[in-house]
Design brief:
7 helices; 10-stranded mixed sheet; Spore Coat Polysaccharide Biosynthesis Protein SpsA, Chain A; 10 strands; alpha/beta
C-alpha cells in the first residue's frame, strides 16, 4: 500500500521503537490520536474477549500459543479451528476445539472459514483476536499486558506492528520448548507483511493470509506488536515447509503466489529466503536486536 507524506514535526519515539522502521514517522501521530480518543471516551466496563486460530499438526507452535494466550484468556475463550490434524497436537485440551475440514492448502477457504467464526464469536464477545498459530500479539511491556490492552479496547479494529523472530542458527542453539522463545533468540526484524489487523470489535474481511483488510484501510498501533515465530528455529521452519509442500495446494493459490514462500525447502534457496527475504515485501531483511524489555513476553 502507498502512504501519504508523514505528519510534520520531529521524530518522536519511545524506547522500544525501532528508529529505522519504515512507519516510524507516523508513530507519534498514531499515539496522539489514540490518546485523544481514549481521553474523550472516559471509563467503560471491561470488554469480554476471545482469541481464535486455525491449526493443522502444529505440535511445536500450538503449545507456545496456548502457553502465551492462556495468561489472558480462560480455556472457554480460546478457540482453535482444528484443520484435520493427525498428530495429536489438538488433543491437549485447555481450549475450545472446533473441527474443520478441507482437502487442499487453500488460503481463500481459510480466510472465509475464519471470517465466519470471527463473526459468530462477536455475537458473544466484545473483542476477538485472530492470529495464526505462530503469531503472538503483545503490547510494549511497559504499557501493560495483552489482557490490559483488551480490557480497555473500544476501536473497531487495530493493525499490529509486525516483527519476525530470526534464528541465527550458526551461533544459537536449536529451540528448547522448556524455555521462553525470545530469551533464546537475539534478533528479529520489522516485517510490514505482518502489520496485521488482528484485534477487532467488528466483523472483518481479510486479504489472503490475513495480512490486511480487503479495503486496505489501516489503523496502526505502534505499541502493539505482532511477533511472528515462523523463523524462530531454522530446522523447525524447514521441516514445516517440507510438510506444507507435500500436501495438495489449491490451483488458485499457486497461480497467485499466495503463501508460496511456505513451499521453499531446497538448501540454498531456503537459506537465502530465511535470512534475506521478508514476507510480502520487496526490500532486504534487516535484523535488529530484540530489546531486553521484550525478552520475557513469550
Amino acid at each position: 500500500m502507498s502512504w501519504p507524506d508523514p505528519p510534520p514535526g520531529p521524530l518522536r519515539l519511545e524506547p522500544w521503537d525501532s528508529p529505522n522502521h519504515v512507519l516510524a514517522p507516523w508513530f507519534d501521530h498514531w499515539r496522539t490520536q489514540r490518546r485523544e480518543h481514549y481521553a474523550r471516551r472516559g471509563p467503560v466496563a471491561a470488554r469480554r474477549s476471545a482469541v481464535l486460530t486455525i491449526a493443522q499438526n502444529e505440535s511445536v507452535f500450538l503449545p507456545i500459543w496456548l502457553r502465551y494466550y492462556s495468561q489472558f484468556f480462560s480455556a472457554g475463550d480460546m478457540y482453535v479451528l482444528d484443520h484435520d490434524s493427525t498428530d495429536g497436537s489438538t488433543e491437549l485440551g485447555g481450549f475450545q476445539r472446533i473441527r474443520v475440514s478441507h482437502d487442499t492448502f487453500d488460503n481463500s477457504w481459510m480466510v472465509s472459514t475464519v471470517e465466519q467464526h470471527q463473526r459468530e464469536l462477536l455475537e458473544s464477545y466484545d473483542v476477538v483476536v485472530v492470529v495464526d498459530v505462530d503469531e503472538i500479539v503483545a503490547p510494549a511491556p511497559p504499557l501493560g499486558t495483552l489482557g490490559d490492552y483488551l480490557a480497555r479496547f473500544d476501536e473497531e479494529w487495530v493493525n499490529c506492528l509486525g516483527y519476525e523472530v530470526l534464528h541465527q542458527h550458526d551461533s544459537e542453539p536449536p529451540f528448547d520448548p522448556a524455555r521462553g522463545v525470545l530469551e533464546q533468540r537475539s534478533t528479529w526484524f520489522a516485517s510490514t507483511g505482518y502489520d496485521k489487523p488482528a484485534v477487532a470489535s467488528v466483523p472483518l474481511s481479510w486479504r489472503p493470509g490475513f495480512h490486511g483488510r480487503v479495503d486496505y484501510h489501516f489503523n496502526g498501533d505502534p505499541d502493539l506488536r505482532m511477533i511472528h515465530l515462523h523463523r524462530m528455529d531454522y530446522e523447525i521452519c524447514r521441516a514445516r515447509h517440507e510438510r506444507w509442500a507435500s500436501v495438495p495446494w489449491n490451483e488458485r493459490d499457486l497461480e497467485h503466489g499466495w503463501g508460496v514462500h511456505n513451499r521453499v525447502t531446497e538448501d540454498q534457496e531456503f537459506e537465502r529466503w530465511f535470512y534475506e527475504r521478508p514476507a510480502l515485501a520487496n526490500y532486504d531483511l534487516v535484523p535488529e536486536p530484540i530489546g531486553d524489555v521484550w525478552k520475557s513476553v513469550v
